[in-house]
Amino acid sequence: MKKEDTVKLISAEGFEFVVHKDAAMVSQTIRNMLTSPGGFAETEHGEVTFPEISTTILEKICKYFYWNLQFASGKQTEFHIEPELTLELMMAANYLHT
Amino acid sequence: MMGGICSRKRDQPVIEEGGVSRVVSGRYGKSSSSKWLGTSSFRSTVEQSPGVAGICPSLLELCISKICRDIDKYSSLSLLPRDVSQQIFNELVSSQSLTHDSLQAFRDCALEDVCLGEYPSVNDNWMDAICSQGSSLLSVDLSGSEVTDAGLDLLKDCSNLQSLTYNYCDHVSEHGLKHISGLSNLKCLSFKRSSAISAEGMHAFSSLLNLEKLDLERCPEIHGGFVHLKGLMKLKSLNVRCCKCVTDSDLKAISGLTNLNELQISNCNITDSGISYLKGLQKLNMLNLEGCNVTSACLESISALVALAYLNLNRCSLSDEGCDKFSGLTNLKVLSLGFNSITDACLVHLKGLTKLESLNLDSCKIGDEGLASLAGSVLLKNLELSDTEVGSNGIRHLSGLKNLENLNLSFTLVTDGSLKKLSGLTSLKSLNLDARQITDAGLAAITGLTKLTHLDLFGARISDSGANSLKHFKNLQSLEICGGGLTDAGVKNLKDLVCLTWLNLSQNCNLTDKSLEVISGLTALVSLNISNSRITNEGLQYLKPLKNLRSLTLESSKVTASEIRNLQFAALPNLVSFRPE
């Protein structure tokens, strides 16, 4: 992926996930951050930090982003959610509007 | 016999008070009622997609779905933000998986809406957890439940309750209603068809000074209770449809509720005298008197209600005399005069109603001349002329009504030749030409009406040749051709009508399984009727791709109920209604 097509999503523990912009913008919250004309300070460098989202959850969210794009393009599979992650994942999804 | 022989008079697009035209299926040779097909929250059995088929479920939806499946693992959801727990609650209810036990996880969740209308097994034991929402609870629906006085008592913890719905309420007494009287924030109250509501019991409503909407439709015991509503000056909407016990004296009691905006007293025991009490209701915007024993004399009183925009006088005992009073009601948008003995003379008085959008003249004694009076009503969108003597001469008066969207000419005298006068009405979406004298030629004359979504040719004599015209109607969602003239060759013309959701080809007795091959590609179909045909069990396989199918009628064909059941089990999870059964 070219750098300008990517964004970096950083978890509470500082773990960095580099994902394609299209994937990240599955989240309405991230989409707003990246496209808002005023610009959010954190996104000037194409980086967004989520101090409330743990690494495991953020990783799962990134997997969802790609699953979503795949689903939309016609390849419809199951998205498995580990039971121990469900509540935290749901809260993060609610926050990220995704 | 099901799938009857001749085209009987069926219910037509009904022009409701709200101006919304809704097609209601009749009983003979027709598919079952569409009312429940669209609105029921039917869950597809595909586990993964809680959303609409084809749209990617959000991560939130997926998580909520998973929590609902594992709901027994969670003893309390009160730490979740309210909007999330509310969504989980709603999902459990709509998937019919909420139980008394899992309900306990929702204690103190600050839920705002508890919608358990007609949910199975709701009783007093549920009320504790429901009322623990306390001052957060804004609306609750307990319709059809077994909640008694004791259960209603707990609602006093919910002081901010704005809306209480408890239709089909038979387990509550006057005593129980008293528990509601303290809920002073109530704006909406509904007790449809509830024998529990007596005139004395209505005393409990007199303290609900913020009440804006009261629904007591079909309550048999409310006569005399309206006196308790006298102080409810904020009341805007009152619905007592089909209350045979409501009489003129009840209207006297509400004559002072001058903020009333909407009054529905259809099928009550009202006469002209009762209507005279309504003269002071100057803000009345909607008045429904359908089926009341009133005559044109009541128009004198009604003419004082200059704000009226919606007036329903279907099935009253109106005659021409007194209809001059219509001319002052210049704010009228929707006027229903169906099934009255009015003639062309009455229509003259409608000429000045320039805001008129919907007019129902079903089964009135009007004819071609009368339509001349309507030629200037250019805002007309919906026109109901079924069962009148309107014919080819009259149709030309409609050619200037460029905003017309819904036109019903069933059982009139219009002929093929005159239909070309409709060809300029390019806004037409719904057209009913159910009349035996309409044939292929008539259909050919209207192929320019490409915006049509609903076309009813039930009893018209359409043959394969006429079916050729159908391909012009690419936006067609609903089609009925039951005149008996179609064969498999004609049905081929339906191949590209992929927007079809509703298709009735019953009584075309020469249709065979070959027709189903064509219909196989119409995957948007929700309702299909090919009764009285030669369809066999072998043809059912072609229906497998119709995943949206909810209703299938194949009466008087060679199809058996057990084979349909097999089809449902194997391929059509959404199929809820089928005949034979």
From TrEMBL, chain A:
Residue ranges of the SKP1 component POZ domain? 6-67
Q: Does the keyword Nucleus apply?
A: yes
Q: What is the protein's given name?
A: Elongin-C
Q: Does the keyword Transmembrane apply?
A: no
GO terms for molecular function, please? kinase activity
UniProt cross-references to CDD domains, sorted A to Z: BTB_POZ_EloC
Cell compartments where the protein resides: Nucleus
Pathway-wise, it operates in: Protein modification; protein ubiquitination
UniProt keyword annotations, A-Z? Kinase, Nucleus, Transferase
Which SUPFAM superfamilies does the annotation name?
POZ domain
Give a Gene Ontology cellular component term annotated to this protein.
nucleus
Provide the primary localization: nucleus
Q: Which PANTHER family has this protein been placed in?
A: ELONGIN-C (PTHR20648)
GO BP terms, alphabetized? jasmonic acid mediated signaling pathway; ubiquitin-dependent protein catabolic process
From TrEMBL, chain B:
Q: Provide a GO biological process annotation.
A: SCF-dependent proteasomal ubiquitin-dependent protein catabolic process
Q: Report any Pfam family annotated for this entry.
A: LRR_6
Write out the transmembrane intervals. none
Q: Which GO terms describe its cellular component?
A: SCF ubiquitin ligase complex
Which SUPFAM superfamilies did the record assign?
RNI-like
List, alphabetically, the SMART domains matched.
LRR_CC, LRR_RI, LRR_SD22
Which InterPro entries does this one have? Answer: Leu-rich_rpt, Leu-rich_rpt_Cys-con_subtyp, LRR_dom_sf
Quote the Gene3D superfamilies the UniProt record gives. Ribonuclease Inhibitor
What PANTHER family does this protein map onto? PARTNER OF PAIRED, ISOFORM B-RELATED
- Recorded protein name is Putative leucine-rich repeat domain, L domain-containing protein
Q: Which organism is it from?
A: Rosa chinensis (China rose)
